[in-house]
Write a structure and sequence with these properties.
Layout: E1 4-16, E2 22-30, E3 33-39, H1 41-44, E4 48-53, H2 63-72, E5 80-84, E6 132-133, E7 143-149, E8 154-156, H3 158-161, E9 199-201, E10 205-217, E11 222-226, E12 236-241
Antiparallel strand pairs: 1-2, 1-12, 2-11, 3-4, 3-6, 4-5, 7-10, 7-12, 8-9, 10-11
Length: 261
């Protein structure tokens, strides 16, 4: 089954709880996503699905990509991501469908290409090119991992890039924001690998794990997550089911033993 969606970061807001506390939250416009290509073990050596994000503004494509989309029978998309297919056994939070549940209904031959496929479908059997997925594959309270590209900071020094303390600002100090010594002279007579130094900061792929879904607006394809996600507003993200999610634990209150009178 498909366990991820492509989305676009809208921005951050606050969500107020019943007790009056405010949660920092990120709004993501996730999906709908259309299956552009299926990769199978027989042809590619592994199972995955290539998703494209359906947007209001039509995307342009060159001849090669136009043929790729024409083969799938879907219009061109601006963003594509390859998502590994998974089964309900190795994805936490994706429960196997029970007998009689609609979530486990597979897409049969003859169904419309735009039919939304819900969580619970088996990998590689019910997913085909043209199928669509939306935020209904998640529910409030689920844990997700968000993959994105951080904001680029350009070339930065060690104080900003690695949080170095720096030197004294006054009293005749000539050492302010420099990195300091990078090694000894006689031994080892080299700079050890991994030495923290000035360099390019940001613009890297980052995964923020185990964010909780606070609200879902299925009509507008919006997800509200508790916490921050990588990138600027308008940046593209991949929202997948959390791989290392732990079950919610209820704090246990120890009972105080009453003393003997």
């Amino acid at each position: 089954m498909v366990t991820a969606l492509i989305g676009k970061k809208v921005g951050m807001t606050q969500v107020y709880q019943k007790d009056g506390s405010a949660l920092p939250a990120t709004v993501i416009k996730a999906g709908p996503c259309v299956v552009v290509q299926m990769k199978t073990t027989e042809t590619d050596g592994y199972q995955s699905v290539q998703l494209g994000l359906v947007e209001d503004k039509p995307a342009k494509a060159n001849k090669a990509m136009a043929g790729h989309y024409k083969k799938a029978g879907v219009p061109p998309t601006r963003v594509r991501r390859e998502i590994p297919l998974a089964t309900a056994k190795n994805v936490k939070g994706a429960e196997a469908p029970k007998a009689g549940d609609d979530a486990g209904t597979s897409v049969k031959a003859g169904d419309d290409a735009g039919t939304s496929v819900k969580a619970g479908d088996d990998a590689g059997t019910s997913v085909k090119a043209g199928d669509q997925f939306d935020v209904t594959m998640f529910k409030a309270g689920d844990r997700v991992d968000v993959i994105g590209t951080t904001r680029g900071k350009g070339f930065q020094g060690v104080m900003k890039r690695h949080n170095f303390a720096g030197g004294a600002a006054t009293h005749g100090s000539m050492f302010h924001r420099a990195p300091g010594s990078i090694g000894a002279s006689s031994y080892p007579s080299r700079v050890v690998k991994g030495m923290r130094a000035p360099g390019h900061m940001g613009n890297t792929r980052v995964t923020t794990k185990n964010l909780k879904i606070v609200q879902i607006d299925a009509e507008n394809n919006l997800l509200v997550l508790h916490g921050a996600v990588p990138g600027s507003p308008g940046g593209y993200l991949v929202i997948r089911r959390a791989i290392t999610a732990k079950p919610e634990t209820v704090p246990q209150v120890e009972k105080v033993k009453k003393g003997k009178k």
